[in-house]
Amino acid sequence: MSDYFQESIELHKKYKGKISIEPKVPLKNKEDLSKAYSPGVAAVCQEIKKGENPKEFTTAKNTVAVVTDGSAVLGLGNIGPEASLPVMEGKAALFKAFAGVDAFPIALDTQDTEEIIKIVKAIAPTFGGINLEDISAPRCFEIEKRLIQELDIPVFHDDQHGTAIVVLAGLINALKIVKKKKEDLKIVINGSGAAGVAIAKLLTDAGFPKSYITDSGGLVSECRDDLNEAQKELLACCSISSICGGLNEVIDGADVFIGVSVGNVLTKEQVKRMADSPIVFALANPIPEIDPQDAKEAGAFIVATGRSDYPNQINNVLVFPGIFKGALSSGAKKITTEMKLKAAEALASLVESPTPDNIIPDPFNRQAPDVVASAVEKVAKTKE
Amino acid sequence: MSDYFQESIELHKKYKGKISIEPKVPLKNKEDLSKAYSPGVAAVCQEIKKGENPKEFTTAKNTVAVVTDGSAVLGLGNIGPEASLPVMEGKAALFKAFAGVDAFPIALDTQDTEEIIKIVKAIAPTFGGINLEDISAPRCFEIEKRLIQELDIPVFHDDQHGTAIVVLAGLINALKIVKKKKEDLKIVINGSGAAGVAIAKLLTDAGFPKSYITDSGGLVSECRDDLNEAQKELLACCSISSICGGLNEVIDGADVFIGVSVGNVLTKEQVKRMADSPIVFALANPIPEIDPQDAKEAGAFIVATGRSDYPNQINNVLVFPGIFKGALSSGAKKITTEMKLKAAEALASLVESPTPDNIIPDPFNRQAPDVVASAVEKVAKTKE
Predict the structure, then answer these.
(1) Which residues of chain A neighbour B121 with C-beta distances below 8 Å?
(2) Rounded distance between C-alpha atoms, residue B310 and residue A263, angstroms
(3) Given B61, B91, B186, B325, the catalytic residue
(4) Quick one: pLDDT band at residue B118, thresholds 50, 70, 90?
(5) Residue B384 — pLDDT band, cuts 50, 70, 90?
(6) Which residue of the set B4, B15, B37, B381 is catalytic?
(7) Closest to A131 in 3D by CA, of A114, A148, A115
(8) Rounded to whole angstroms, how far apart are CA atoms B151 and A285?
(9) What is the per-residue pLDDT across B77-102, written as a single tens digit (0 to 9) for each?
(10) What is the model's pLDDT at position B1?
(11) DSSP letter (8 states) at residue B313
(12) What does the CA dihedral A214, A218, A221, A224 come to, rounded to 10 degrees?
């Protein structure tokens, strides 16, 4: 790991960032200039002004803004916009490399919810979609909700829904192996931030039972008086909240543990108290909720992490490029729940014969962006 | 001209815009991903958080935002952000093609001065410089002034200063031909918007006498009660304002006419009333203030326009790519008056032996961006 750190610093210094902006039309002579720019371009402006769709004439149709305020970057916390930029540029580079989607980082020097909403709305004409990134909970929920309501282009908070979709895809395949029915599961989600909330919602949307959602304050339940709006919503839709307690209590007999929290919060002893053939998704990065080796020793049948050096890497790169590729190509105005569900199913179906060490495609699976995009397009078309 | 219109529409439909965003680091395998993105990138974020210059690790150092609100686009007026986007994308493409500068269009869905200032400040961490574009006067003056004050990256309103710099360069060479001294000139500038104001200021900064500045309301003078703040500033610094009247009066005996207004406002008869060897810059686009042929027939010795189909095209593309190239590479925090003056001189010097039909380099002169950039860098260095 520490090798990657030093090599990454050197890579960034050498290349001075990770994206470049290139002309894609000829610009070699006056003739070219007269068509791409003045005077010819005036006619294009007028076509749009007369009511033609601007997306037919501009890069905006295929361009996603990767918007952050730097408030919850990787596991590093609130490091601000400048320090978050390498992550946003990386994401922009991945959008193009994995799905042919143009993406540009917008790191905002404000963490005020209303200002962020206003700014994203103001810059929206340049873009075909908005990927919210590394914005801390609970602000991320309000920002996403409002932008979805107030913009007519797709808005997607990847830390929430990208994670939820890959988790669902992995879980679909894990259940095929352990031969359990989703209806019968006892699921514990540890972590009630952006990812935890979105996973809990998507699992219930997919027909899974309500989850036990725990965080550092214990079980997200009616016993708590410190819940934010998004967590309170979970009480109604997605969480078993009639009891009081914490992870150590609810882990008893659990079939599935999904950790989207911090390192080393799940013990071997707790894994031993889970149901038969337990499924452990320990997704905290870089240090998982439990070391995968320890989890296996304690009886975990299937273990997934967020890391590339263990089997079953739960990596959003399997999802976000294809989600936007499909949404942009189909002209969808929103990323719907059905799109997310179908994307997860499509991703799961890429693993033909799931095994405990192979429940999810490799991040470099070349088909992943396309099957996800197709799933999204298909839903978009049936809605027309 | 009309051919260009149709061909431009076809070009834009075919390519779906004019820029693309490309990864510039390898992204072929897990190893690459671990360095360009998670987990390696966390180390880069931390370096920046610890105080390292973000510009050393990101594309921001070489990236300019082309910001507009769509309020004064080409000669088309207030057509809004969507319809302005083809111009902004064109400009972004030119930045890269002419000077290797990455540039990205930001078309804003607001025309409120304070909101624009706030938004540009908020998105600034992503950029190394701000090119303001096609924002109407007088709002453009306040927006530029405030952003220059409040940001520590270069902010440049190209419609003002790009135009002023090319005009000055052309004028420097024109004077060599007519063998007049700048101190002795009677200069008439028709148009008191963004370009007119900036030209008047830069000419006086360059040691030219105050100009007669006229617009549709007559001479910008103390007789007027309809002047905006920027125009009032001209009264003190740059304009001869002690008389009342209009273009038709002040054109008598003028050595230089600079039109940055609208088509067909200067008559042959008026050109005949100018001084010996009159210099006529009729820069309105696409229809000049006077047809170049008519101007010649009326005795104009040197005629320049904004058009590519006549000699002496006054085209900002000679300036803005090099200005930002030099500012970004030298780390300059502002574009100073001295940089503008030196850029104009450098540009003028590219024409070795000026003639009436060759006072300014061709827009495709390959040396122009570099000599302009060098001039800017040299000034930046002497200020350190």
Answers:
(1) 109
(2) 70
(3) B91
(4) very high
(5) low
(6) B37
(7) A148
(8) 36
(9) 999 999 999 999 999 999 999 999 99
(10) 52
(11) B
(12) -140
Nearest to B116 by CA among B61, B59, B162, B70: B70
Predicted TM-score (pTM) of this structure: 0.96
Token pair in block for residue B79: 């057509």
Integer angstrom CA distances of residue B195 from A30, B189, B323: 23, 10, 17
- C-alpha pair distances (Å), B263 with each of A35, B286, B288: 22, 8, 5
Could you report the per-residue pLDDT of A136-147, keeping only the tens digit for each?
999 999 999 999
| CA–CA distance, A353 with B27 (Å, rounded to integer) | 28
Q: Is A366 on the interface with B (CB under 8 A)?
A: no
A6/B43 Cβ within 8 A: yes
Lowest mean pLDDT segment, chosen from A240-244, A324-328, A334-338: A240-244
pLDDT for position A286: 82
Amino acid found at A46:
Q
- The 10 Å Cβ neighbour count of residue A296 is 17
SS3 A67: strand
pLDDT digits (tens, 9 = 90+) for B190-215: 999 999 999 999 999 999 999 999 99
Which uninterrupted H or E stretch holds B304? strand B302-305
The tokens describing A197, both together, are: 């909330």
Query: Is B212 among the catalytic positions?
Result: no
Q: Rounded to the nearest 5°, which phi and psi values hold at B125?
A: -55, -25
Contacts of B97 in chain A (CB under 8 A): 23, 27
Residues in contact with A149: Cβ distance below 8 Å, sequence separation at least 6, in sequence order:
none
Q: Helix (H, G, I), strand (E, B), or coil: what is residue B261?
A: coil
Q: Is B37 a catalytic residue?
A: yes
Residue reference for tokens 């229809």: B287
How far is Cα A377 from Cα A331, in angstroms, rounded to an integer?
Answer: 9
Q: Say how many residues make up chain A.
A: 384
For residue A383, pLDDT over 80 is answered with: no
Q: What tens digit of pLDDT does each residue of B246-303 get?
A: 999 999 999 999 999 999 999 999 999 999 999 999 999 889 999 999 999 999 999 9
Across B218-233, b (16+ Cβ under 10 Å) vs e yields bbbbeebeebeebbeb
What pLDDT, on a 0 to 100 scale, did the predictor assign at position B49?
96
Residue with tokens 């395949």: A173
- The answer to whether the CB atoms of B16 and A56 lie below 8 A apart is yes
Q: Residue A1 above 70 pLDDT?
A: no
